[in-house]
Amino acid sequence: MKYQTLILHNGNEIDKATGALNIPIYQASTFNQEDVEIHQKYTYARSENPTREALEKTVASLESGKHGYAFSSGMAAISSAISAFIEQGDHIIATSDIYGGSYRILTQFFNKFGVTTTLVDTTDLNNIKDAIKPNTKLLFLETPSNPLLKVTDIVGCVEIAKKHNLITILDNTFMSPYFQRPIELGIDVVVHSATKFIGGHSDVIGGVTVVKNDEYAKKIYFVQNGFGAILSPQDSFLLLRGIKTLKVRMEESQNSAIKIANHLKTLDWIEEVYYPGLNSHKGHNILKTQASGFGGVLSFKTKNVEQVKRIMKNVKLWAVAVSLGGVESILSYPARMSHYAIPKDQREKMGVTDNLLRLSVGLEDPDDLINDLEDAIK
């Protein structure tokens, strides 16, 4: 079965009780138990819910995993995945230019429990090797990274991790399972902010985690059930609906992103364009070996900060907002939005400067989106 068919026919699309072509919203907190001496599948919705289960199985299938878990947000998924594998005194190695929320939870929360984190440029595998300590437990990756779209060699990271008995977790939000499936490359745990491309309509907050290993699955389920940061039936339904159009949305966003990135490179008021679909992008060739596409997100730097402010103030079609992956195009300002939690000096060291803008390309005509940016700068 080809992947675009799998999206719609993965065994979790029809309600077995009624034959409905959409899994119903099972808006129930608890379930009647006919015989308390006999274990039944559904008892309390924090532990199991039919709508959430359908979503979890769908995402696991699309990510080439075996077990999926849905959480109340992307950060809940990331935090729970990390929590499942670390203990006091452990050390984590993470991609340096990660999402600001991931940076914050690693450096300002887990550190309270004696867990330390070293941030490195994972595009150079030697940086990972050099950062490994006797107590290193986990390698947390984000590729392509947010917001500079840096590409990390996944297979190379897996080889290092296996040699040193490290758990690998990869944030696959930017690519979605449609373009990149890290479990197929040996990654242990994949996480998503499902709010983004998986949902695709800017109407739901959610996160998902996928694993293939049964023991790892038990650890993550223990945290999901214990912490209780579960996704609601309503939001699970919305994500199931969004997934049905994943293929067409991702393809359209990517096609427009390529056109916009190539055009932006020709403009004299732009300093640099970051998009892995460009032949000139560092990591372009690596991404071609580990993904089937380049995604719908790009970033660029203007010649000065005033131009950034002018664009944000004057665009008409681009929504100036936090988040990405929706059907509408979104323009974000990482320095004041997604990466504001990172101290300014650290942020600038990462390359997230005040003249950087990130674009999440939606389903509008790319020529209209280009004209809107040019009109805004004028």
Summarize the structure.
This protein has 14 helices and twelve strands. It has helices at residues 3-8, 50-62, 74-83, 100-108, 125-131, 154-163, 176-179, 214-227, 233-243, 246-264, 284-290, 305-314, 344-350, 366-377; strands spanning 67-71, 91-95, 116-120, 136-142, 167-171, 189-193, 207-211, 270-274, 297-302, 319-320, 330-332, 356-360.
Give the helices and strands as they follow along the chain: HHEHEHEHEHEHEEHHHEHEHEEHEH
Low-confidence spans: pLDDT under 50, at least 5 residues?
A: none
Please state the CA-atom Rg, rounded to the nearest Å: 21 Å
The coarse silhouette is globular
- Tell me about the biggest sheet? 7 strands, mixed
Q: Regarding CATH, which class of the domain at 246-377? A: Alpha Beta
User: Major sheet: order of its strands?
Assistant: 1-7-6-5-4-2-3
Task: Count the beta strands.
Answer: 12
